[in-house]
Every structure is written in structure tokens, then in C-alpha cells.
């Protein structure tokens, strides 16, 4: 049995609209959009604001202020260096004392550094930034 014509027409319209967002775009225009962080489908998920510290990122839980790999601008990023979608991250940042490779992988107000308590290893762990202290597994906003 064939689907009704209305259903077929509606499906074709949806496909045409979806493809027309970049109809006539050449490769350089798509690359330019990518460099600016404006890629079809992810524009709403990207926090447009720049950040200078993790305190700015409090509105996006599980994010840290880090360089965006797309444009090099400091933005609130998830632990996997992606942007939060609907104010949430798919990945969870590492807690204090957990192994890491990059600052962005650590909880807010923490950074990734060599483990000072075990200098024999090259392992890096998440630690509170110097101006913050550890309190109940997080880094507090109070100065040491």
C-alpha cells in the first residue's frame, strides 16, 4: 500500500528545508562557519560568551573555563572540550585527586598538575587552584 500523497509531500518538504540551510555553500564558506564556531546544528548549544575564570562558568554545571579548540577563545567547556547542550555536559569532570591530562577535565576551580605527593610518577591529578581550598571534595570560593 502506498503512503498518502500528503505524507510524501510533507516528508519531501522536511528534507528540502533541512538541506537548504547550507544550499549553495561552498567548502570555504563551511570552513569559515566552522572557524567562527557557527556550524549548522550546534549554534544553540554553544555558549557565545567568553570567560576569564571558572567562576563565570557556574551557570553551566560540569564546565570549566578553557580554550575552545575551534577558535582558541576562552569559553565554558565540558571535560571532553565540547560545549554544554541545554546547560548540561555528557561527560562528568574529574574530582579532586583523580587522574587527568588537561585542566578542563577537572571540576570547577581546579586544575590538572603533577601529583606533588608522589613525585616519582609523572601522573597528573586534579587539584584546587592556589587561591582556593579543598572543602568536601570541591574547591571553595574562599581564599586560602
From TrEMBL:
<dbReference type="InterPro" id="IPR006149">
    <property type="entry name" value="EB_dom"/>
</dbReference>
<protein>
    <recommendedName>
        <fullName>EB domain-containing protein</fullName>
    </recommendedName>
</protein>
<feature type="signal peptide">
    <location>
        <begin position="1"/>
        <end position="27"/>
    </location>
</feature>
<keyword id="KW-0732">Signal</keyword>
<dbReference type="Pfam" id="PF01683">
    <property type="entry name" value="EB"/>
</dbReference>
<feature type="domain" description="EB">
    <location>
        <begin position="78"/>
        <end position="139"/>
    </location>
</feature>
Amino acid at each position: 500500500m502506498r503512503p498518502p500523497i500528503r505524507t510524501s509531500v510533507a516528508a519531501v518538504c522536511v528534507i528540502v528545508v533541512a538541506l537548504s540551510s547550507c544550499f549553495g555553500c561552498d567548502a570555504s564558506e563551511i570552513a569559515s562557519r566552522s572557524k567562527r564556531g557557527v556550524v549548522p546544528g550546534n549554534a544553540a548549544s554553544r555558549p557565545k560568551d567568553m570567560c576569564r575564570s571558572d567562576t563565570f562558568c557556574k551557570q553551566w554545571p560540569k564546565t570549566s573555563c578553557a580554550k575552545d579548540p575551534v577558535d582558541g577563545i576562552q569559553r565554558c567547556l565540558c571535560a571532553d572540550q565540547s560545549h554544554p547542550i541545554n546547560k548540561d555536559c555528557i561527560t562528568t569532570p574529574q574530582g579532586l585527586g583523580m587522574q587527568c591530562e588537561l585542566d578542563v577535565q577537572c571540576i570547577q576551580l581546579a586544575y590538572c598538575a603533577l601529583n606533588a605527593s608522589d613525585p616519582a610518577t609523572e601522573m597528573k591529578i586534579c587539584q584546587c587552584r592556589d587561591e582556593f581550598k579543598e572543602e568536601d571534595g570541591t574547591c571553595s570560593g574562599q581564599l586560602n
